[in-house]
Design a protein that fits this description.
It is a single chain. With 307 residues, this protein is of the alpha/beta class. It has 13 helices and five strands. Strands 2-1-3-5-4 form a five-stranded mixed sheet, sandwiched between helices. α4 packs parallel to α9. The longest helix has 19 residues. The radius of gyration is 38 Å and the shape is elongated.
């Protein structure tokens, strides 16, 4: 019977291997070592184990036996006494754990604190300083920056978003990321440079994870927003998105039902138009047609005011 070698590169095919029997890898030359490695690779061996074989089954059996011996009760040992449960009369309630979390300021008190701080500011710079010193809103604890303008832009236009984006929070400037780039293109289409307007948000701090502010958080921030309008003295206000429009108008309608409509905000009243937020256009590009219609309406109202 003729035996066909498994692989012509196998070192066992060499007569010298038969004469030497069991050899060490250090005794192989380069060609023989390469052939041996090829043989192991072809056989499916892709890693090396210990030099001496280990009986894992015996190890496992010994571990099981040791575990059983540990759990077995000692012969002659006295049985454990079961502790008696106290009666209900003797039982005392466990003391309540003391919470280390700071107690939040009640909403009404925080709103009043914000109102007093906002009314004391006589400029946007002072108002921003008051916001940075304010400790009555939990949103400030997780935000990097208080995103708020320190002065009004050259154009009498106030553009308001909802809350700072991650880029705004990092840079400390409103509309500093992709939303700002799209906003610039939107208003450039009607000849307005947004860098000459006043850019701000309804809430000066970014909520954790970009979630919407709670009603309580929004009410705490409202005095700062209203004081900002009074100090910036804009001729027109642009309300971007669902939250901002509801925040200033009190409406419960969605932005697609409110966009293009005009409102009066503040005292004395300032004209404000509701528009889609840049994020709305990024989410649904087909909405750009609606945004263009609102921009044209805004341009028309400004031209009528200047006539």
């Amino acid at each position: 019977m003729t035996v066909t070698p498994v692989d012509e590169r196998l070192p066992v095919a060499s007569p010298s291997f038969k004469r030497r029997g069991m050899i060490e890898a250090s005794q192989l030359n380069a060609g023989e070592l390469a052939a041996l490695l090829h043989f192991h690779a072809d056989a499916g061996v892709d890693f090396l184990l210990e030099d001496v074989g280990v009986d894992r089954f015996a190890e496992f059996a010994a571990a099981i036996a040791a575990s059983a011996a540990t759990r077995a009760p000692t012969q002659g040992a006295a049985p454990r006494e079961r502790p008696q449960r106290p009666s209900q009369a003797d039982a005392k309630p466990a003391p309540r754990p003391v919470s280390s979390t700071a107690v939040a300021i009640p909403g009404e008190e925080a709103v009043e604190m914000a109102r007093r701080a906002a009314e004391a500011a006589t400029s946007l710079a002072e108002l921003k300083q008051a916001i940075e010193n304010f400790e009555g809103c939990n949103l400030k604890a997780s935000a990097r920056n208080s995103v708020f303008p320190t002065e009004a832009g050259a154009l009498p236009i106030l553009i308001l978003g909802a809350t700072p984006s991650a880029e705004d929070d990092r840079e400390g400037v409103a509309f500093s990321g992709v939303h700002g780039e799209l906003l610039s293109k939107m208003f450039a289409a009607i000849g307005i440079d947004v860098t000459e307007t006043t850019l701000a948000h309804s809430v000066p701090w970014r909520p954790p994870g970009g979630r919407p502010p709670t009603p309580s958080e929004a009410e705490i921030c409202r005095p700062f927003a209203m004081r900002m309008i009074a100090l910036a003295k804009p001729r027109f206000i642009v309300l971007l998105g669902n939250f901002t429009t509801r925040f200033f108008t009190g409406s419960t309608e969605a932005i697609h039902a409110l966009r293009g409509q005009w409102f009066e905000i503040g005292t004395p009243p300032t004209e404000a138009i509701a528009m889609l937020h840049p994020q709305d256009l990024l989410t649904a590009p087909l909405s750009k047609r609606l945004a263009w219609m609102d921009l044209l309406a805004f341009e028309k109202r400004m031209n009528q005011s200047n006539a």
